[in-house]
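User: I've been trying to design a sequence by hand for this structure and keep getting stuck. Would you show me what you'd pick, starting by listing the structure so we're on the same page?

Assistant: Good idea, let's start from the same input. This is the structure you sent:
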């Protein structure tokens, strides 16, 4: 059975280092990352041939370097993410490609960098094939496909279906293959990802669509990518994805393709938040406590400029109190947690649509707890 999550509303340390010490040394707000958790999550995915970190989840150079040193590869979605991957020590070329550029467009800067460094491209639109083929004919590319359906924990994280801009529409595959052939480009891989929080029922549909697309493309295919979207629990009692079943579905599809093609097909996965989410902590200090009618507010020195997911998606993040006196025996109260910015959306305890809600947290003795 998948592991069930537990969260505490009090915390005195991060990875064994006292929170008070971190706050005193680095100030607040500040980010802290637990490297051991990232390594643990990488090890979770070792059944896949390639683990390619989607650095848009967190492009901290130290994290990129850690992923590289632990055998992971990297995905980039912009010119500056390419530069960050290079700065973290990833080689621009190799087999499999250490860096892949995945997007639905080339801006001029990104196209120049891809050509300059010979970086592999995962194309998300027919125009990208034309633009890349005109500059670099005769190479290999990957196609990101939109299978015509999607799924996500929020409509804003749904990356499939006709309301999504992501990928090449599935009925345009044969046209894109002709475009690639016109420029002497070989389509060696397919990528398919329908959204964040993919469940196994939807995943089985994705695997079926991937098989069909790969068979249409033909035996030039040497790689298929399961994309990302692996969920992590944010609330008490939520479970982790059953990775054994997740891998089994993709592995079965891969094996059927190997049998059809008569050669090996590499299976990639592209985790983002699965590697970074549970490793990252935003340390912030309560600077004021206010009673506003029936609501009590804890106001902290971090805002949505530091953590944007609540204002963007109404995302729920666990919140813990680290009392400066080390006393964890405190009564709880229902409070709203907000930041210092002059914007009503600067609330960490909100639901999608901007609805402010409360969280049961330990009561501080003063603003400096």
């Amino acid at each position: 059975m998948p592991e069930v999550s537990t969260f505490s509303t009090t915390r005195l340390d991060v990875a064994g280092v006292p929170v008070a010490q971190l706050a005193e040394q680095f100030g607040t707000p500040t980010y802290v990352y637990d490297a051991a958790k990232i390594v643990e999550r990488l090890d979770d995915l070792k059944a896949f041939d390639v683990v390619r970190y989607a650095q848009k989840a967190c492009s901290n150079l130290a994290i990129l370097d850690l992923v590289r040193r632990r055998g992971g590869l990297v995905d980039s979605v912009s010119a500056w993410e390419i530069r960050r991957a290079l700065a973290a020590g990833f080689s621009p070329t190799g087999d499999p490609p250490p860096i892949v550029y995945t997007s639905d467009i080339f801006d001029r800067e990104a196209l120049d960098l891809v050509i300059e460094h010979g970086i592999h491209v995962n194309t998300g639109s027919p125009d990208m094939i034309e633009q890349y083929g005109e500059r670099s004919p005769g190479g290999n590319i990957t196609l990101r496909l939109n299978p015509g359906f999607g799924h996500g924990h929020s409509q804003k994280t749904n990356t499939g279906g006709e309301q999504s801009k992501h990928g090449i529409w599935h009925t345009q595959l044969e046209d894109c293959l002709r475009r690639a052939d016109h420029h002497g480009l070989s389509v060696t891989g397919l990528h398919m990802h329908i959204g964040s929080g993919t469940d196994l029922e939807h995943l089985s549909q994705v695997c079926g669509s991937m098989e069909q697309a790969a068979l249409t493309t033909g035996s030039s295919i040497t790689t298929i990518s399961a994309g990302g979207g692996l969920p992590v629990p944010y609330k008490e009692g939520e479970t982790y994805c059953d990775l054994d079943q997740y891998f089994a579905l993709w592995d079965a599809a891969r094996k059927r393709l190997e049998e059809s093609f008569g050669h090996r097909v590499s299976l990639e996965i592209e985790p983002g938040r699965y590697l970074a989410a549970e490793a990252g902590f935003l340390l912030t200090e309560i600077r004021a406590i206010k009673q506003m009618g029936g609501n009590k507010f804890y106001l902290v020195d971090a805002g949505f400029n530091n953590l944007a997911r609540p204002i963007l998606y109404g995302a729920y993040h666990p919140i813990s109190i680290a009392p400066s006196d080390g006393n964890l025996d405190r009564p709880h109260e229902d409070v709203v947690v907000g930041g210092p910015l002059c914007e009503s959306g600067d609330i960490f305890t909100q639901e999608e649509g901007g609805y402010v809600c409360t969280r049961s947290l330990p009561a501080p003795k003063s603003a400096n707890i």
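That's my pick for every position. To get oriented when you compare it with your attempt: Residues 152-159 have pLDDT under 50 and may be disordered. The chain has eleven helices and 19 strands.
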